[in-house]
Design brief:
Length: about 575
């Protein structure tokens, strides 16, 4: 994946924020923001582009192209450094609080001299913010929520960022001479939604070459501990990586131990103890004689404990041991089972790529169907109209004829309004192949109002999928406060699927909610919500989340053949 693009997206976004808080031109800030998003979603790796190529990226003109070149050659942008110097460090700490925003952060500093999270908490509790213009009880509640989210997230990072880093490290270490096996373990192998640190394992006779190779990687900023069994480093992005080198014949035991979760390991060790065995990262041993029984593969270890091999995404001690003992582990949905994507955007609304490019990228993924679901008019900033959507439908139908192996569905992502109403009347909705509906605003309604709103959307016969149902953004925005058991029951009753939005910042529904919804008999749609061709591969994170929610292929409507899917989308037809 285009990693440099992400770095440039981040630094230009920061620049836009800095312009905004230092009282710069709002139009200028906005143009940097647009360029940042366009670069993040641009399919070509920016490091392969010359200045002319860079200016072909939407919203990138000469001045931004120059800044990108400066960053790629020197690792810094002097204009950004200057702006950074001009704001106090304490304000930067405040800006990091989700839901506060740069403007308010600066106001707090200038009016009240607040320059740390602790001082801000004191001020909220002392009710000292209420006199400030633009601040009220609601802002205070938001600030407290934002701080709580930030503290809960701690220094954990999103799954995809950890995955990108881990895959690069595994690829590097696999090329070192003497490497027999190399893999990532820990929470990353279990595909948790956030990752504390990356655990990498190598099987080899000599450990030193691997420890040295990790320390020498270009993205290694600091070596925290350097030993014969374990080396820990911190990457330039502040992410910790633990590398352990195991004797080759301990590979399975080490992989099982360091995959965790700890609670799962406690259960497997208990099972061992009851059988007069001892399980460690080196193998499964006879407790009395100390003789090693098995250690080279995970399968052997689970088998010797009387268990089938348990997929890492289930290893959380959430009933997988009991299910395994009963022989009732689910057959989990896999990425190969996915036949198509049901929630995607184009540049007709807020997507970055034209229809043709999105469709070509979907076809390259081998999908047998693909839905185009741009936003509807109630998100006013998207400027959607009936005319535009009908014109898009014609283009979709035409492309559909050209793509032999892949059927195109023309759909829309409706906006669920404050009362549960959506953008268009039924007769117009009837013209779409698929209607999703999602909440995009009014997140702070009462629990009753939010529940009614979601249930009403489920009851609309034309709506067959609820998009990103809780609207959370991991580490940034909490889930809406609705009675989700009531929503899940409504979905089951009305035959409405719940989305598992695969965007790594959303993963919405998350694993625990999926487990609950499944008990109500709900079906699911795993969607990328792609706004760019580079987002289509996020599907893997949605599938992993579905696995963590114990889903099988049948639970997921976009593994179904198209005829069966169409009956689900339009039961009356
Ligand atoms: P993270 O890094 O917070 O996202 O979560 P994990 O699960 O990767 O945790 P981490 O990195 O502390 O340890 C990796 C795995 O190693 C963990 O899932 C289980 C295993 N492990 C580490 N320390 C212990 C321990 O003291 N006891 C047991 N049973 N297992 C451990
Ligand atoms: Ca870890
Ligand atoms: Ca670790
Ligand atoms: Zn969307």
């Amino acid at each position: 994946m285009a990693r440099a693009n992400d770095e440039i997206e981040a630094i230009l976004q920061e620049y836009a924020d800095l312009i905004a808080i230092t009282g710069g031109d709002a139009f200028r800030a906005r143009s940097y923001e647009k360029a940042a998003r366009a670069i993040g979603g641009y399919p070509a790796d920016v490091t392969t582009l010359d200045p002319k190529g860079l200016r072909e990226i939407p919203h990138v003109g000469k001045s931004i192209a120059d800044k990108i070149v400066e960053y790629l050659t020197s690792g810094r942008i002097s204009a950004v450094e200057e702006r950074r110097q001009s704001i106090p460090a304490g304000v930067r700490e405040l800006i990091a609080i989700p839901m506060l925003g740069p403007k308010k952060a600066l106001l707090l500093y200038e009016e009240l001299g607040i320059s740390s999270v602790d001082q801000l908490l004191d001020a909220v509790h002392g009710e000292r913010l209420r006199d400030l213009r633009g601040f009220g009880e609601k802002t205070e509640a938001n600030i407290l929520h934002g701080i709580a989210l930030m503290q809960k997230a701690g220094t954990r990072i999103l799954l995809n960022a950890a995955m990108d880093a881990a895959e690069r490290i595994v690829a590097e270490l696999s090329g070192v001479e003497g490497c027999e096996r190399c893999a990532y373990a820990g929470s990353l192998r279990r595909m948790r939604e956030t990752i504390g640190d990356i655990d990498v394992l190598v099987a080899a006779d000599a450990s030193a070459p691997f420890m040295d190779a990790l320390a020498a990687l270009p993205n290694t900023a600091e070596v925290i501990a350097h030993g014969a069994k374990k080396t820990s480093i911190r990457t330039t992005k502040g992410l910790q990586v633990d590398l352990r080198v195991l004797p080759p014949d301990s590979w399975g035991a080490g992989l099982q131990y360091f995959t965790g979760a700890k609670a799962h390991n406690i259960r497997t060790r208990e099972i061992a103890v009851r059988q007069g065995l001892k399980l460690s990262e080196y193998g499964l041993f006879d407790a009395e004689s100390g003789e090693r029984i098995v250690s080279s593969t995970e399968e052997e270890i689970y088998e010797r404990l009387g268990l089938p091999w348990i997929p890492p995404t289930l290893r959380e001690d959430r009933g997988e041991i009991e299910a395994a003992l009963r022989g009732e582990l689910p057959v989990l949905v896999t990425e190969e089972d996915i036949r198509g994507d049901l929630h995607t955007h184009t540049d007709l609304t807020d997507g970055l790529a034209p229809l043709e490019e999105m469709v070509a990228a979907a076809a390259a993924r081998g999908y047998s169907y693909y839905a185009v679901t741009d936003h509807a008019p109630d998100l006013a900033m998207q400027r959607m109209t009936k005319e535009k959507t009908l014109a898009q439908r014609e283009r979709v139908r035409e492309l559909d004829r050209k793509h032999k192996g892949m059927r195109l569905l023309h759909g829309t992502e409706l906006n669920i309004g404050p009362e549960g109403d959506v953008d268009w009347p039924d007769d117009f909705l009837a013209g779409f192949d698929i209607c999703l509906a999602s909440i995009h605003s009014h997140f702070n309604q009462s629990r009753d109002a939010l529940t009614r709103r979601l249930v009403r959307a489920c009851e609309n016969p034309y709506i067959s999928v609820i998009g990103h149902p809780t609207t959370r953004r991991i580490g940034k925005r909490p889930p809406v406060d609705a009675d989700f058991d009531a929503v899940f029951a409504a979905c089951a009753r009305t035959g409405t699927a719940l989305e598992i939005n695969a965007h790594p910042e959303r993963l919405d529904l998350g694993d625990e909610d999926i487990l609950r919804a499944k008990r109500h008999g709900v079906r699911f749609a795993i969607d990328s919500d792609a706004h760019s061709t580079t987002h289509l591969p996020y599907m893997r994170y949605g599938v992993a989340t579905a696995q963590r929610g114990w889903l099988s292929k049948d639970d997921v409507v976009n593994t179904w053949p198209l005829t069966k899917l169409r009956r689900f989308l339009r039961p009356s037809v």
